[in-house]
TrEMBL record:
Organism encoding this protein: Xenoophorus captivus
Keyword flag Coiled coil: yes
Entry keyword annotation includes Nucleus: yes
Keyword vocabulary terms for this entry: Coiled coil, DNA-binding, Homeobox, Nucleus, Repeat, Transcription, Transcription regulation
Organism ancestry: Eukaryota, Metazoa, Chordata, Craniata, Vertebrata
Full protein name: CUT domain-containing protein
Ranges of compositional bias, category Low complexity: 1-11, 125-135, 304-318
Subcellular location: Nucleus
Amino acid sequence: PESPLSSAEESVNGLAGDPLASQSSSLKPPSEDPSGQRLFGETILGLTQGSVSDLLARPKPWHKLSLKGREPFVRMQLWLQDPHSVEKLMDMKRLEKKAYMKRRLSSLSDGHSVEGVLSGPDYMQGSQSPGGQQQLKKARVVLGPEEKEALKKAYQQKPYPSPKTIEELASQLNLKTNFDTGLNLCFYSRSRIRRELFIEEIQAAGGVGPGSEGGSPSLRGCKSGEGDSCDGTESEGTVETRQGLGIGLEDHRGACKDQGMEVESEAGASNNSPAQLDCTTSGLAGPGSSCGQSGLGIFSLTEASSTSSASNTNIPSSGPARNPRDNNLRKKKAANLNNIIHRLEKAASKEDPSEWEF
DNA sequence: TGCAAGTCAATACC
DNA sequence: GGTATTGACTTGCA
């Protein structure tokens, strides 16, 4: 029970189960009351809810992460190592709720709406400049499926289009956007389009397995020597210090398998449970990983998790039952998180930084 | 300067 | 209401 794993388990169950909610039965929880994912993201990882969701749903191979990209995982590890992490988080939640209620009461007594109070720094990150001026963001252009498909095809034909091509493309698609948005479409989303194409290529090639190699640059980027692709036999020896917010866990063994993770799990081409699938195919699991063997991950992902709260190690189901696709995603994310935690702990157990791996 | 990675935050979805 | 998606934006690097 004193282990970091247990603490994390408590935290997850505790947060989503929200034992505090019952304490405030007289007052309806505020709409901005942070959810588990949101609170964890904002207070522990320093990320917004959307970023946390993306991080867990689509983790990238460690060696592909920049120092900044690794930071959330380092924070996660430090949090896991703190035996009082859960208590602190719950305290934080209590304080936030208290502060919210205080603001709410004062604003009500002042005759102001709650909305204005909530847009403070507690709930908004980066929305205001240091000077207090609201930074105006361009309105989002919502692309339709046809437009996305066209962009994808355009990318396939020409990943690095010229400005003229961009304008032509925008015009062909009848995009009511300016040139900057065209640039956005072509450059900002490039990695996402590439990721989608990568998955499609793998699916077309029959999935990722030892020795399999696709034709995309990203596939070619995987080491395929020694018969087992990306087996981590090579090392760049890039060891960073913890003080530098990097835990120095360079490991290439996950590269190809990581990429195949989502593909295989979504294809469902295995008898394994989705959780095991994600674990065993994910590079995050790595050699020696207990994930999928013992089933002792923080988030146990049995089928029951999607139907009831039968097991207190399940990721709690919030709200109404979700569709199969959603459940799969949740399972996938939980499996990813299990692997991440496992690897963080494994890394932390080694005193010699050169032995750290992730 | 161009690009990729990372993140925010609006909005869609369930 | 919580979570997922994704366009807009920022940052860092070659």
